[in-house]
Design a protein that fits this description.
- This is DUF5925 domain-containing protein.
- Pfam families: DUF5925.
- InterPro entries: DUF5925.
- The chain is α+β, with helices and mostly antiparallel strands.
- Helix content is about 25%, strand content about 25%.
- The strands form 3 sheets. It has a 3-stranded antiparallel β-sheet with strand order 1-5-2, sandwiched between helices.
Amino acid sequence: MRSLIESPTVFDIGFADSTNSLSFRAFVDALIRGGKKYTTQISWETDVDSIQHSERIQRLSKDNCLFLQKEHRGARVLVELPGGYGWVVAAEKISVITAFDSKASERHEAFLREVKNEWPVSDTQQENIIQVGFWSVSPQGFGVKLNRKLEAQTWEDIQPNYPKSEPLSRLMQEFTPAHGGKMLLWHGIPGTG
């Protein structure tokens, strides 16, 4: 295994909601030992399923694997590839954490484009699909976020369930969410609100 100090760029891609993972710690260790001056972090949802992740991870981690941790949603991998690339990949949500030297900034941008081609941003324009995050505490005491995609009915479909729906109707008509955002109204059996 080649020393990370010789590597111009190290990348870590993993679950966006955890900085307590072993792969993140390995990334920070590589960052310190490699003397990287610049770091960035971006996150996005992806529709690539865990089987596709596993296949890509198998190819990716075959050589130059610095860290591998398999998880139920995919895996975390910190690798060093020819040219100094390395990343961690996991299902559902991608977080790209990069460390690079100023001389490697063009390579850094090219790599981010390559990653977005491999793990494209999820289509948030599906009218009836909503991404919801549920937080819990892991046995180790860390906060863990589980993402789910829920199929949601439109306000027009559920409005008859609400005897006092007029104030909500005005709100639903006037509310304009940010790009990709949606208002989610939890509802139960008709009449329960």
